[in-house]
Amino acid sequence: MLVKSDFSGVTRALFAASMAISAVLIASDARAASKLYDMNPIIGQENPLDVQRVPAPAATPVAAQPATAVASSQFGSQLYDMDRMLNERNPFDTSPAQPPVVRPQAASQVASEAAPRPEEVAQMAAPGATSFPDLDDEYDPGQMGGDVDGRDPLETINRGIFAFNEFVYQYLMTPAARGYNAVVPETVRDSMSNTISNLKAPVILANDVLQGEVKRAGITIARFLLNSTLGFLGTQDVASELGLSKHSEDFGQTLGAWGVGEGFYLVLPLLGPSNPRDAIGKLFVDGYFDPFGYYLANTDNEEWGFVRSGTSGFVEYAGIVDDLDNLRQTSVDFYGALRSLYRQRREAEIRNREQGAVPALGGR
Q1: Scanning 50, 171, 190, 228, which has the fewest C-beta atoms within 10 Å of its C-beta?
Q2: Which letter does DSSP use for residue 219 in this model?
Q3: pTM of full prediction above 0.85
Q4: Helix (H) or strand (E) holding 274
């Protein structure tokens, strides 16, 4: 009975000891498992290959970070620093250096950086300093044929008429004028031009007198008499060979000499560049100074008057067709260039400064 009770006590003691040991082992395994599967340090730790690094919390000093974490962070920033790799020059590249890649900036930042600093302004204003070209001088709208003084308020309408004239000139008159210049000998063409010019002498003389140009009026009379007699009815310009140079006058020039302004620019159908002052003189006044026109009207030969006017315009166009083509090919705006040349020519003629063959489409 005693042996049995002692055996039972030993058994209980061994059972209690085994239970205590099991509790210790379970607690140890739990602590090991909590350390092995603690995800918070793993989530908070920085990936060494992550270029966009998240800065460490302010509460954690840099010195407290592990050495491996700092080394891996530096390794990642050096290996994946794409700005440095894109802007760094290849040591084997012999081409001229290119400016670095500039990232887009805000408009306010660009404006603030583009504005010169006071010291830079003072340096550019210093004597001998190199300045930037003046864009207003380099891109002068007047050189491009622009209407810089507002003399062309009807530009839209004028350009439409100009386009119609260009169609007629290029497809009808230009081929005919080139054929005329190629087939007709130069001496014959000069004779035609001299005859037409000689028939205009009465109109030129009347306007010389109206302008008070006595000397020029005497030259006009002398030229007409010499060319009509010694020049075989005006076919030869004998007066120019004797030193009496020809000049042109019309009532538009007379109005200009009297102080009448040119007004606005005007393009006439088939007749080309003009203005109200010149158009009134050409179409309505100069005809009254033409005795040959009176003769044709009084003898019921008005059609020959139209033939004379058409021939005069065609011969003059044939004389400047090459100049017009040259101007058309070299001008940025042919309409604007022709407008500018016409106005310059008329101003020179009013001041009795005859210019060369500046294009003036249509006979005068």
Answers
A1: 171
A2: H
A3: no
A4: strand 272-274
| Residue 114 identity (one-letter amino acid) | A
Give residue-wise pLDDT tens across range 30-55: 554 444 445 555 555 655 555 555 45
Question: Which backbone phi and psi does 70 adopt, to 5 degrees?
Answer: -65, -40
Mark 20-41 as b/e (b = at least 16 C-beta within 10 Å): eeeeeeeeeeeeeeeeeeeeee
**Which of 201 and 94 is assigned the larger pLDDT?**
201
Would you say 194 and 186 are in contact if contact means Cβ atoms under 8 Å apart?
no
Handedness of CA 90, 91, 93, 98 (dihedral sign): positive
* Angstrom distance (rounded) from CA 332 to CA 351: 29
- Hunting for tokens 């030259």 — which residue is that? 219
Are 48 and 62 within 8 A, CB to CB? no
Residue owning tokens 């081929």:
175
User: What backbone phi and psi angles, to 5 degrees, belong to 191?
Assistant: -65, -40
pLDDT tens for each residue of 70-116:
444 444 444 555 556 556 666 566 666 655 555 555 444 544 444 55
Longest dimension (CA), the chain: 181
E-state strands within 61-108:
none
Per the CB < 8 A criterion, the answer to whether 227 and 196 are in contact is no
- What's the pLDDT at 77? 47
| Mean pLDDT, rounded, of the chain | 75
Q: For residue 103, what are its two tokens?
A: 């990232």
